[in-house]
Amino acid sequence: MATELVPQIDKNAAFLTLELDWLYRLIELRLRLYFDHEPPAEAFTDIMPPALSQPSSYSDFVLTNKLGTAERMILILSLAPHLKPELLDAFYTRNTTYDKKFTEFGGIVTSTAGFIPTIQTALFLWAGSDLKLRFQCYEFLGAEQTLVKLRLINLINENRFEPVSNSMLQMASDYTEYFISGQWKNPGHNENFPAKQITTQLTWDDVIHSEASKEGIEEIKDWVENSKTVLNLKGLQKRLKPGYKTLFYGPPGTGKTLTAALLGKMTGHDVYRIDLSLITSRYIGETEKKLSKVFDQAENRDWILFFDEADALFGKRTDISSSNDRFANQEVAYLLQRIEDHNGVVILASNLKDNIDKAFLRRFQSVIYFPVPGIQERYLLWKESFPGDMMPAKDVDLYALSEKYTIAGGSIVNVVRYCCLMAVKNKQKDISMQLIETGIKKELQKEGILF
What we know:
Belongs to the AAA ATPase family. This protein is an alpha/beta fold. It has helices at about 5-35, 55-65, 70-85, 120-125, 130-140, 145-150, 175-180, 210-230, 255-265, 275-280, 285-300, 310-315, 325-340, 360-365, 375-385, 400-405, 410-425, 435-445, and strands at about 95, 100, 110, 115, 155, 170, 195, 245-250, 270-275, 305, 345-350, 365-370. Strands 7-9-10-11-8-12 form a 6-stranded mixed sheet, with helices on one face. The protein has a two-stranded antiparallel sheet with strand order 1-2. The chain has a two-stranded antiparallel sheet with strand order 3-4. Strand 3 and strand 4 form a beta hairpin.
């Protein structure tokens, strides 16, 4: 375990110990009241949660999201199976009259995880049999309420014939990790999360953009850094949606993916590239389900979502000539709505703007063109791409090279990689013009261009 995490873990453990003790006292008193066992003198509402003055990831979250006492109770109840499952053992009490568990306690009993609380458990713990209090508590589990809206707690009901109150309170694994370690755990790249984090060691100084591209990129950076302040301006939050959507378009190798990674690096936001091979499906409705998993996890996490080769998902809708066309158009409409409602930054990348459905473009905040660099930009790219200990030979004219060959930055990097590999293999101290042109020839042939 990294030593720098230990102090934060200590703080988290100290506060969660207090919060779990509060939950234990609530359970004990509720059961005493329910069974008419001489309850303590204090009333249920007198058992106050711990003060939030003690710093921890958990207390910071409660403060930031202004959670009330009932919401805190639901939150720690959902977290208890992960941290101290024995606190819930009291709910195993059986009803001897009917020789079964008490229905009013709710909960799902598993052979491995023990007692998993349900909505019914939370309602009973907070309100007993008081219907008015139960209704008030139930409201905190609505789709637009903090705990559910942030996807912090998932309401799982695998049997559609079961009452809603039998839905399990499942704490999201990334929040569990955050409350324990203070660090957000990056989700794994798999079918349940078909996206992969992209990073770069480069800086803005290593990238050559046109002036028009620079302005558009700077606007995205400004939004990421200042959007919360802008949205808090009086009356503006009602008119603006919190997210930012943009299209990067231009030929391959012009820096679209690198720019997305740099935006994340320079603003301190994780960037996830959506894996279209895991997203797209020939089965009706499957693409929407898979994409939903990405948006659900990204909601309120300040991630930047990057869709490379986006026309595979967001291409033009077709005239309806079959049921497949109708479903394909419904899929595009769903994607459009989901992107529009997302509260983070979404970047679509495509080689051609015309490949993207115009309904998307009308709702985007910016459309940024990444052209093949001009002669001066190509010269700077050539000059900056060679490593300091493997430079071109003295007779290599990089400016003349830039004038002669119109290739993108990604291709230039591929040429330099090839040249360095061949130079090292042949124990050469520098890179000849002949070797550079051989590398360029290989790149042009990939694009079907005769050298």
